[in-house]
Amino acid sequence: MALNQDTTQFKVLIAGGSLVGLGLALAFERAGIEYELFEKGDFAPQLGASIGLHPHSIRILEQLGVWEDIKNQVVPLQNRNHYDGNGHCFEESQVLVEINKILQRPIIFMERCKALETLHHHVKDKSKLHSQTAVIGYEENSQGVIVTTDDGKEHHGHMLIGADGIHSRVRKLMADKISATNQSLGQEISEAFTSEYNCIFAVSRNDPANPFLPDAMVHNAYHKDHSAVAAAGVHGLVFWFLFIKASGTTRTPDCPRFTDDDAESSIQKYGGSLVGPGYTVEDLWNARVKSTMVPLEEGVIKQWSHSRVVLMGDSVHKATINPGLGGNLAYEGIARLTNGLVPLVKENPMPSVAELTEVFNHYVAGQLPRAKTVVDISGQITRYEADSTWILKFASRHIVPWVSDRLKAKLYASFSNGGPWLEYLPLPATDENLAKSTKLSKTGPVLSPVLIAATITLGVVATLWNINR
């Protein structure tokens, strides 16, 4: 097939229009790089999902001009209480307040659909965004890449980004092409994720006259082989999660898909579990606006790119959602990839495959260590909150509460400040010294990423977990 296009205009094709895809669209638009984005569904569906945004992602959203609109919709989280299965509060924490003091940015929770609406709104040229248009195939030739969508059309570009989630079609297509010459690698990519826990997540009404929990509050409930989190990050709503250990471990592409009946059955079994003072999982369920049940996949794939194709977000690294770092990790990926691509295209408006591969390799080299840390720590946190072992249960009740909130916040700040930003856009005034301090930190002692990330759940328990694995 011949490419009928302006060969002087480099174009990126993006598969997936969720938080990662729309974030990429804004990043490319601000950089003046031509792109087209294809989303198989609608751009902001209400699925009952929420998104936690951490300070290092908020910094990127500030650079993209999006944060102010998001800020006006949320109540920054401040207090976090931890309860055992009997409803006893064994830790009252102000670590979220301390984090805000140090980083001058909060940690927030909001409806995922509202975050998507905001990102979509800020894209100036909506003609480049194609909803209800799924990528079903791609081919490459010496000039570029040709994507086929489910409406039978072909779209021509020079690079394809698979930002289409855990069930990534682009990842499967890439793995199939790799399998033609390296079958074992293709299989490793297809089977990279495992699932040992399931999750029901939902948005429920939080009646101001009789709220489950006050605004800006987070409740964590620890039960044997299951746990729950509720966060009041938007006035009148509560975002909550029920995490349940599955009967066994499954592996992609055979991780389960759940129906509404599966969710109902799980609520019948675990609905009596307390989440906070005076309310249960079932109470939240009965007040729900929308809910979904999913497996919690975990893993990092072995190869992230092939020729002109590169993967991002959940298509390449998937973490359990207890600490809320998966979406934030994806925004780190946006920064790392575009930081390499923008100067390349400026220098060479039509980069070669070899030059693109160099950018991809640099992106992976920067992203892979953070991805492995976040995936590992997130999984440990899931097991920690589900009282998976006696040592984890002991640590949560008798060790972690004695670690000061200030220390936890300082360690978290080191982790957060280690995230990248968009180097081709001005840094916000809040971060005027960040670039300098980041350079200096590379020559000094490095804090254990395990210890730093463990403090996201307010403790040092990850170290104990590693000792006893």
UniProtKB/TrEMBL annotation:
InterPro entries: FAD-bd (IPR002938), FAD/NAD-bd_sf (IPR036188), FAD_mOase_fung (IPR050562). It comes from the Eukaryota. Residues 10-347 form the FAD-binding domain. The chain crosses the membrane at residues 446-467. Keywords: FAD, Flavoprotein, Membrane, Oxidoreductase, Transmembrane, Transmembrane helix. Its main location: membrane. It is found in: Membrane. GO terms for molecular function: FAD binding; monooxygenase activity. GO terms for cellular component: membrane. It holds the Pfam family FAD_binding_3. PANTHER family: FAD-BINDING DOMAIN-CONTAINING PROTEIN-RELATED (PTHR47356:SF2), FAD-DEPENDENT MONOOXYGENASE ASQG-RELATED (PTHR47356). Belongs to the paxM FAD-dependent monooxygenase family. This is FAD-binding domain-containing protein.
